[in-house]
Structure formats: C-alpha cells, structure tokens
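INTERNAL AUDIT FORM
Audit reference: QA-55
Scope: verify that the stored structure record matches its stored sequence.
Auditor: D.O.
Record contents follow.
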Amino acid sequence: MLAILVFSGMACEDDAELTMLAALSFPAEIQTSATEIILSEENTYEPVVAFSWEEVVYHIDAQVTYTLAIDTEADIYGETAWDNAQRITVGGDVLSKQFSGSELNTIATELGLPADVASEVFVRVEAYMDRYVYSNPIAISVTPFTPEVLAGQLYVPGAYQGWDPASAAVLNEVESGVYQGFVTFPEELGLEFKITPEPNWDISYGYDANGNFALANDTSNLSVPVAGSYMLTVNTNTMTFTATAYSWGIIGPATPDGWDADTDMVYDYQNQQWTFSGDLNAGALKFRLNNEWTINYGTEDGNSGEITDALVYLDNPGAHTILEPGTYTVTFVVDPNAPETATYSVIAQ
C-alpha cells in the first residue's frame, strides 16, 4: 500500500513537471498591416507598418516580454540563425508594434539593405517569461532610402539663459527647413526669447510690426504663455513658429505626488537630457510624457538604488525602485531614432 502511495505521489510530481515543460507556441501567425513598404523622405515621420500577434499563454501567471526580431533570409537558418537580427523590445504583455518610416529605414540600414532596392526581410516575435517561444517568421518587402543629411541649427537666446546666442539652446534641423528642439523657461527668469540663424545678434527671428513671424533686424521678442518646458518648432519654408508644452516627468511612490501626478523634469539643453534634482521617497519610479500614460517607460530588469546609463522600455509596466529616501538627481534621454528604449540615471546627492 505504501509503495502504491509513493508511486502515486511521484506520478503527480512528474505530471506537474510535464505540465510546466509542455510545449508552448504562438496561437496564430503574426499579422502585418503592409507587406510591401517603400520608404522615402515623405513618409519619414509617418507610420508605415504595424505588427500584431496573439498572446502566448505560459503555465505561470506572470508578465510575458515580447521582442520583434527582423533579419534577412541569409541569417535565419543554421546554427547562427537570427544572431544578426535587429531586435526591438516591445514590452511586457504588449501585443503590437508600429514603426515610422524613419525607424524602419534605420533598421534596414543596420541590416545592410541597399538603398532604393526592394529587399525581402523576415520578421518574428520572441516571447519570454521563463523560456523563449518564437513565432513563425513572416516576409515583407522593404525599399530603404538614403536620407538627406541635415546639419542646420537655429539658436534660442532668451531670458532663461542671459540672452547670449553663443551659449543658447539650439533647434536642430529635422527635415529640410524645419527645426525643432526643447527649452525650459523658469518663471523667475522670464518667458521671452528670440531665435537666431547664427550664434550672434546680426539678425534674428521674431514678430514684425504686423505680428507675423519674420527674420529681420528689428523684430520684437517671442514668448511662451506660462513657465515650463516647450518643444519649439520653426519652419523657414512657411515662416511659421510654434511653442508646444512638452515635458517628461517622473511618477510613482518615490515622487512627491505618488501615482497622482507627475513631477516635471526640466530640459538641460547643454547636456541634451531631461533632469530632476530633489527629494525622493523610497519606492517605485517611472517616466511618462506630458502627464499622461500614452507614452511611458519602465524597466524590465528590476533596477533599484543608484544606477547610471540604464535602460527603460517603452510601455513597460516595470519601475525603478528607490531604496532609501534622500536627495537625488535623475536624468532621462530618449534617442529619437530608437524610441523603443530610453537611458536614465539615478544618483544620490
């Protein structure tokens, strides 16, 4: 009788192990919004393709991290299959990913695809929780292009930095004749500024006598309505100018307002990064844009304490943990050419 019970117990354990190690797979083929994509200057900033897939159900109730892998046919077979793939971390329990023309063109360039030639690439989804599960690859045609090299800059001298064009924030050329950048305007320093094509006062952009945006020697100052951080955009083709409220913030139990509201960071134009310096509590910390959850970043690595140049991932539900209350400097940078990840640091003062 005892032997039967022992054997029965062993059988149950084996069943549990077999359940945990049962084969897993994607329940359906991944879907794409386009199979032939021709990239150009015109669709650089537009969405050109989106991929979606059904969730992989693991035998443990925990977050599943999905990654897209994109590779050429020559690299998806053999012992080194997919080793040279371009991998884009999508995030935890995220079941779709959209690419702009710029993002896909960068991937194509990294894969060595020739410009202005249609090339076949293969896309698969990689799911991971306690082990990897791979979707079947799908093929799409991508025609990359060689983007125009843009090197132009405009300068933004103003009250925020002492009206010195040579040391002012810059607006970088993002497409021909269009310039964009970020400036934080503190209330105590004033909200007025001008824009100059060179790091001097020879001539400047401002408002003319009719209130139009103009380039002349006698333009009046520009200004923002309230203190804060802004994305400034100048289009010299249409002679238009906009200042749009734009700020990255930190949120979570570690921050002064917990999960209720962002604590805004300021843009450090000299180091081209967003910065917070002040007191933090022990607890979780995430990054989000413009006081909304539409665009947010979290860590999937369980990071905590002080850290330098660590990665956070777009739409990832994870958070950095501050272990000890104190005064910290937190920095944050998103690479516009690879926005699926961002780099951050947390340093105690």
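Auditor finding: record pair retrieved intact. DSSP finds two helices and 28 strands in the chain.
Action required: none
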